[in-house]
């Protein structure tokens, strides 16, 4: 059976996106942070007032608590990430 080239690479891309999301999530656990929001469906994202192309949709963003030393260390470790301090949590997203 001949594989469909485009389909194969789309599959590889999706797996890569998922692996990065899982590594990101794992890192948050290692740093002892509690994740209050990670993957979101487009509907849930609208409900929560997220941006249309929020990285929560692919798991590359997470809302975490508490704001402590571990989080500050993580901020230094992930220099390309974006950190947004919200009212009751910190939003972290890759890139
Ligand atoms: Zn968020």
Summarize the structure.
The protein has helices at residues 5-30, 42-47, 69-77; strands at 34-37, 61-65, 81-85, 90-94. The chain has 95 residues and is an alpha+beta fold.
Q: How would you sum up this structure, described in words?
A:
With 95 residues, the protein is α+β, with helices and mostly antiparallel strands. It has a single domain, classed as Muramoyl-pentapeptide Carboxypeptidase, domain 2. The protein has 3 helices and 4 strands. It has a 4-stranded antiparallel beta sheet, with helices on one face. Strand 3 (81-85) and strand 4 (90-94) form a beta hairpin. The longest helix has 26 residues, at 5-30. The protein is globular and about 55 Å long. Zinc ion (ZN) is lined by residues 37, 56, 61, 63, 91.
Key terms:
alpha+beta; 20% strand; binds zinc ion; 43% helix; four-stranded antiparallel beta sheet; Muramoyl-pentapeptide Carboxypeptidase, domain 2; 95 residues
What topology emerges from the helices and strands here?
Elements: H1 5-30, E1 34-37, H2 42-47, E2 61-65, H3 69-77, E3 81-85, E4 90-94
Antiparallel strand pairs: 1-2, 2-4, 3-4
The protein binds zinc ion.
The end-to-end span amounts to: 39 Å
* Total E-strand runs: 4
Mean pLDDT: 90
- Rg over CA atoms: 15 Å
The H/E string reads: HEHEHEE
CATH class descriptor name: Alpha Beta
CATH A-level architecture: 2-Layer Sandwich
Structural class: alpha+beta
**What amount of the residues lies in strands?**
15-25%
Cofactors, ions and other ligands in the entry:
zinc ion
Label the overall shape: globular
Helix content: 40-55%
The domain count comes to 1
